[in-house]
Specification:
Length: about 500
């Protein structure tokens, strides 16, 4: 018996050593990056194109647009006298609109290989990073250089294709060690000061009731306001939304966050399905309207992330949910984890008998988005990319379709992905519409998105960072990500990311 045990242990050890060796070999393989091979376009002329006026919801037909040094300088119906070295595009039958934004995604150190080219290929050139790879593992005292800083330096050297990352946080406030009623003010003041020292652009809260009592949460808001740092993120169900609004909260993330705040009497249940059941049965239309009106008045933005928020919980029961053709753009280890989580979800977390509740909860999220739009809440497009069955760039178009499914008009959905995002950052004078004096950051579509929202996917060309990417370039970006996602070296590096090591 002892001899057998020794042989078994030896065999297991050899297997572990073998896979450990394979892992190290893969990690040592060099990483590829999608480098900037396109020359900057000094002058660009788009003839006879149709402008999608996302601000006013109409098509301005048959216009000629001249771009010089990345700025739109003329929009007219006549043939202009063109400067030398002008690239000309025949826009006949095409529709030009501002590029899209994803205001809720997550990056990792492998995003240049797995995510960025896919974002640009799908017309997404502006993002808000709600938590990079460090945000899950970072020590609060760590002030080392962040991925965003490295990427932006490489992009300046013309070596890396990167979207505009306007903000990226490297720390999630998920729990606070050794905090209690006697020291919470000091603890929270210290936390916010450290986040400020780290250079965090905002305080991202990702808390549940058990992790932070409401009094502590409100104090965290006060400390953030004191240090002039925006606070935003998850809206826990134990909070009084009136107090949250009064204290200041820049944006609420996820559709599930608002549903519990639309009942007359909030109650808490240990099991999630029981909580959903109660919240659905006790939704109150008057309270819902009051809540949304307060959010609008306080200029608090709302990012529903319908493509992931509650939707995946009921879709996980669909046989083909795991077989999305876009899986080819997802790294193999991550894809295995997605399928495993979906399997566990259907085999343990929820039961098939729970399906009506899960679907109704998702549908209630859609209803609240429609009501939010009607009551003046500014809505932003976000996907929560990195979450399971969400695809960088691609899911932005899916989210637009979800917004229309919710009851928003096509133009309202497009504004959420363009105008509203630029207003959130105070950049409307530079981006968000096709107008003279604004930066040329646009997508050229084969079909009219005001007629059918799915037409945003029919991208003919992308103009970003003074470069014109045609259909061949777009295909090349997608092919690059597909190859990287299925490469041995990237899979090994992804595993190392998972076990909390930086590459």
């Amino acid at each position: 018996m002892k001899r057998y045990l020794k042989k078994t242990l030896k065999f297991i050890l050899l297997i572990l050593l073998f896979f450990g060796l394979l892992l190290m070999i893969g990690v040592l393989l060099p990483k590829e990056t999608y480098q900037q091979k396109k020359e900057k376009v000094e002058n660009l002329y788009i003839k006879n194109c149709n402008i999608v006026d996302v601000e006013n919801g109409k098509i301005i037909a048959n216009k000629n647009i001249l771009v010089q040094n990345g700025i739109i300088v003329t929009i007219d119906s006549l043939t202009s006298t063109l400067p030398q070295n002008t690239t000309i595009i025949n826009g006949n039958g095409k529709y030009i609109m501002p590029s899209l934004w994803d205001m809720h995604l997550h990056t990792i150190s492998l995003s240049p290989q797995l995510h960025f080219p896919l974002l640009i290929a799908n017309g997404v050139t502006g993002v808000r990073d709600m938590g990079d790879g460090d945000s899950w593992i970072s020590d609060i005292n760590d002030v080392s250089q962040r991925d965003k800083t490295v990427w932006e330096k490489e992009a300046k050297n013309e070596n890396l294709l990167v979207p505009k990352i306007y903000e990226a946080t490297s720390f999630h406030v998920e729990e606070i060690d050794n905090i209690d009623k006697s020291n919470y003010k000091e603890k929270l003041a210290e936390l916010v000061l450290k986040l400020k020292k780290r250079g965090e652009p905002f305080v991202k809260v990702q808390l549940e009731e058990s992790e932070l009592p409401d009094t502590f949460f409100y104090e965290l808001q006060h400390q953030a306001k004191k240090q002039n740092i925006p606070i935003l993120g998850h809206l826990s169900p134990n909070l009084n939304i009136n107090t949250v609004v009064e204290n200041g909260f820049k944006s609420i993330e996820h559709a599930w966050a608002l549903i519990p705040h639309c009942v007359k009497e909030m109650k808490y249940f240990e099991k999630d399905i029981e909580q959903k059941t109660y919240d659905l049965k006790n939704q109150d239309s008057i309270i819902t309207k009051q809540v949304l009106e307060k959010l609008a008045l306080a200029n608090i933005y709302y990012v529903p992330t319908h493509v992931t928020s509650n939707r995946k919980e009921y879709l996980a029961f669909e046989p083909n949910f795991n077989n999305n053709p876009n899986n080819k753009y997802t790294e193999n280890v991550q894809l295995f984890l997605w399928k495993t989580l979906n399997w566990l979800h259907t085999k343990g977390y929820d039961k098939k008998t729970d399906l009506p509740i899960l679907k109704s909860f998702y549908e209630r999220g859609l209803e609240i988005t429609k009501l939010a739009q009607q009551n003046g809440v500014k809505i932003l497009t976000g996907t929560d990319a990195l979450d399971r069955n969400v695809y960088y760039g691609i899911s932005v178009h899916e989210e637009l379709q979800q917004m229309v499914k919710a009851g928003m008009s096509n133009i309202q959905a497009l504004k959420a992905a363009t105008v509203n995002a630029t207003e959130y950052y105070g950049l409307f004078n530079e981006y968000g519409t096709i107008d003279i004096g604004k930066k040329a950051d646009f997508i050229l579509l084969d079909n009219n998105p005001l007629e059918k929202i799915e037409h945003t996917q029919n991208i003919n060309a992308v103009f970003y960072n003074k470069r014109l990417y045609n259909q061949d370039d777009i295909l090349q970006m997608k092919t690059f990500v597909k190859n990287q996602a299925k490469s041995f070296g990237i899979s090994c590096k992804f595993i190392l990311n998972m076990i909390k090591l930086r590459i």
